[in-house]
Design brief:
The protein folds into 4 domains: 2-259, 2-enoyl-CoA Hydratase, Chain A, domain 1 (Alpha-Beta Complex); 299-475, NAD(P)-binding Rossmann-like Domain (Rossmann fold), CATH 3.40.50.720; 496-538 and 546-602, N-(1-d-carboxylethyl)-l-norvaline Dehydrogenase, domain 2, CATH 1.10.1040.10; 612-718, Orthogonal Bundle (N-(1-d-carboxylethyl)-l-norvaline Dehydrogenase, domain 2). It contains 28 helices and 19 strands. α4 (134-142) crosses α9 (228-241) and α12 crosses α13 (329-349). It binds (S)-3-hydroxydecanoyl-COA.
């Protein structure tokens, strides 16, 4: 709803009231419509101030209403009535003005923002366009190029950037409402026509056509098949080339085609999933709302390789004092230089001073006596990590949390090396750790709820999307990646090329196919993991066939490339060829194609044409199948956790919702049928055998994804 009050004699104050973000629900739209009508018809009211309760202007249209039939007054007529009114309306923006919230502010004749406010049109991230006039008014206010940037990326801007762009008229560090009221009084009686954005001409680049064509090209490349960014460009083109009313018609048509699209549903599911994972739970019954996080005043990072440096930067950027430890002076100096330059670069990007004073570099573990939490980021080597944990346990305060940044190792074994195993959790960051949004918080059987709550809270402070997961090899993300990667190399044995597999995955929406990613991260990473698992190297039993390991099919191709020194981009060749070591542009490599042919003939394998459909079904459904097993094992609390991990950490296209959402969208019976088909064709690949949870869900009539947790619960209760 909206509250109407009269203040300072002649000012009508309309306060949006719909916690937690004052979203424009039907009741709020009704309240604003009624209040604006009342203010305009009251002869004693000279001007209107519009604000939001609890320091938040407005988070936009109520996304929860999108799944239901619309009721109440429309947003567009409500906004148009504000702009057309004969009394000045001033938006007092605190907290956020996002989406429909900013569109509401754009209909006001003046905008005053608190310096901490954030503004933006993030509809594109929900698979939509700003369809309450945002695509038409913003270009008329700040020009086509700047508006196009904000609308196609959905990025939020600070109040200061909004002032520079011309979105707001004033920024204040005073009481925004008081200033808005003073301002409203000062402008009352002034002509309103120049303040109505719908009547303005947008400022356009001189060569508008080629500018928009270039923008469309870039957006299509970045969009990876998403339709909303393309519609954003089309809508801004309409703003640049058509009168306002016709532009609004275009905006409405484009929104109509997006509103009920599968992509919009998927992206809105991602939005809510991201929030669902914050309400974490553990099989023990510990949850986000019954476990209290401890404050972290000072932290430490041990091991300043690529991951450790990124983690240290994240901590400093969040304002947390850090002790950054390396084992030797020389390595410490190199790391110090690298961390300092990242901090300086990042600070420059944000127009701020680097917080260099918050970091203390050291080679002395005794410097960790005072820290509240340590993140160990040494090499992925269990013996080394155990050694570090033993030392930490004797040096740190008894109540210090000890976290390991590992991508797959057993958190429980590390906990066992300490005096207080309940204070040990995994914090699996993704490289580069100061950029990537995802954090897997891994709890072992002995991790205390307080330790999990503290790591989750710290992740939030670092600006990460944190997901609590159970302890198993590879946790959630990497465990699901293993069958996906295995299928990709099996497909090479059967006749595909890396180019075909990558193309299929990139057309699906991944930024890079599996082989390009492998070249980028280095083939030796997986090689080391496989050696550790006894799949290759000295751990393999003598006489075991090259293509069978531990009783199931194995593909030695990646190991063979590693043995040849083809480790990917860093050596200038891997699955592709690069112009030099460290080169970035992948080219097809005839050597590799010959090598594959020789390999097949050596092993008596018949190559057959592999279709794009088979690539997608085998790679994606085997990954999804592992996701069902993870749910069954209680390693992830729900499908939303898995999907959030894949969207934020593994490049899964958000417009496809995540792997588990995708399974639901394709249809669980179809996924089951395909897995049955492929597992019959390849009985030596157990990962293709459908998981029992998938079968149960299909037997239960393939319930919608938000009901899967109930089926998982019945599985657990029967165990
Ligand atoms: C044909 C029809 C024409 C229609 C025209 C529509 C035009 C319009 O352009 C469309 C839009 O505005 S699209 C909208 C464009 N706007 C956006 O995309 C903004 C989306 N929102 C955000 O980015 C963040 O929530 C904020 C930055 C606002 C706050 O961040 P924070 O402080 O970290 O808080 P938090 O944890 O994130 O959220 C707290 C709670 O609020 C909930 N909730 C939030 N927004 C909601 C909404 N709009 N709605 C409903 N609920 C919303 C959220 O789910 C959570 O609920 P839970 O039950 O507790 O889990």
């Amino acid at each position: 709803m909206a509250r109407y009050t009269r203040i300072a004699g002649s000012i009508a104050l309309i306060t949006l009231k719909n916690p937690p973000v004052n979203a424009l629900s039907a009741a709020v739209r009704q309240g604003i419509t009624d209040s604006v009508g009342r203010a305009l018809s009251d002869p004693e009211v000279e001007a209107v101030v519009l604000c939001g309760e609890d320091g938040k202007f407005c988070g936009g249209a109520d996304i929860k209403e999108f799944a239901r039939p619309m009721t109440g007054p429309g947003l567009v007529p409500m906004i148009d009535a504000i702009e057309a009114g004969e009394k000045p309306v001033v938006a007092a923006i605190e907290g956020v003005a996002l989406g429909g919230g900013l569109e509401l502010a754009l209909a006001c004749h003046y905008r005053i923002a608190h310096y901490k406010a954030r503004l933006g049109l993030p509809e594109v991230t929900l698979g939509l366009i700003p369809a309450a006039g945002g695509t038409q008014r913003l270009p008329r206010l700040i020009g086509v190029p700047a508006a196009l940037d904000l609308i196609t990326t959905g990025r939020h801007v600070s109040a200061h950037e909004a002032l520079k762009l011309g979105i707001v008229d004033r920024v204040t560090d005073r009481n925004t409402l008081e200033l808005a009221v003073e301002f409203a009084k000062s402008v009352s009686g002034q002509p309103l026509a120049p303040r109505r954005l719908s009547t303005r001409q947008p400022s356009c680049p001189t060569d508008l056509d080629s500018f928009l064509e270039g923008a469309m090209l870039r957006v299509r490349q970045r969009a990876r098949g998403a339709i909303a960014p393309v519609a954003c460009v089309q809508a801004v083109r309409a703003a640049a080339t058509l009168p306002f009313s016709q532009g609004m018609e275009q905006e409405k048509e484009l929104m109509a085609s997006l509103f009920t699209s599968a992509q919009a549903r998927a992206m809105q599911y991602c939005f809510f999933s991201q929030r669902t994972v914050g309400r974490w739970s553990m099989p023990s019954g510990a949850r986000w709302d019954n476990s209290k996080a401890q404050p972290i005043h000072k932290a430490a990072v041990i091991g300043l390789g690529t991951m450790g440096r990124g983690i240290a930067v994240s901590l400093v950027q969040a304002g947390i004092p850090v002790v950054a430890v390396e084992m030797e002076t020389k390595q410490l100096e190199v790391a110090k230089h690298a961390v300092t330059s990242i901090l300086e670069r990042e600070a420059q990007k944000r127009g701020k001073e680097p917080k260099l004073g918050l970091i203390h570099f050291s080679i002395d573990l005794q410097d960790l006596r005072e820290v509240d939490l340590v993140i160990e980021a040494v090499f992925e080597d269990m013996a080394l990590k155990k050694q570090v944990f033993r030392e930490l346990s004797s040096v740190c305060r008894p109540n210090a949390f000890l976290c390991t940044n590992t991508s797959s190792l057993d958190v429980n074994q590390l906990a066992a090396a300490t005096r207080m195993p309940e204070l040990v959790v995994g914090m699996h960051f993704f490289a580069p750790a100061h950029v990537m949004k995802l954090l897997e918080v891994v709890y072992g059987p002995r991790s205390s709820p307080v330790a999990v709550a503290t790591a989750m809270q710290l992740g939030k402070r670092l600006g990460k999307v944190s997901v609590a997961v159970g302890n198993c090899h590879g946790f959630v993300g990497n465990r699901m990646l293993m069958p996906y990667m295995e299928q990709s190399v099996f497909l090479l044995e059967e006749g595909a090329t890396p180019e075909q597999v990558d193309q299929a995955l990139e057309e699906f929406g991944f930024p890079m196919g599996v082989f390009r990613v492998s070249d980028l991260s280095g083939l030796d990473v997986g090689w080391k993991v496989r050696k550790g698992l006894g799949l290759t190297g000295p751990g393999v039993a003598p006489g075991e066939s090259a293509r069978i390991r531990q009783g199931r099919r194995y593909c030695p191709l990646p190991d063979l490339l590693c043995k040849q020194g083809r480790l990917g981009q860093k050596t200038g060749k891997g699955w592709y060829l690069y112009d030099k070591p460290g080169g970035r542009v992948a080219k097809s490599d005839p050597w590799l194609h010959n090598f594959l042919e020789e390999y097949r003939s050596q092993h008596g394998l018949q190559a057959h044409p592999v279709s794009q459909q088979e690539v997608l079904e085998r790679c994606l459904y085997s990954l999804i199948n592992e996701g069902f097993r993870i749910l069954e094992d209680g390693i992830a609390a729900g499908p939303e956790d898995i999907d959030t991990i894949y969207v934020f950490g593994y490049g899964w296209p958000p417009h496809r919702g995540g792997p588990m959402f995708h399974a639901g969208a394709v249809g669980l019976p179809t996924v089951l049928e395909k897995l049955e088909h492929y597992s019959q064709a390849h009985p030596d690949i157990p990962q293709l055998q459908p998981s029992s949870l998938l079968r149960r869900l299909v037997t239960a009539g393939s319930p919608p994804i938000h009901k899967w947790r109930e089926v998982v619960k019945t599985v657990h209760s029967q165990l």
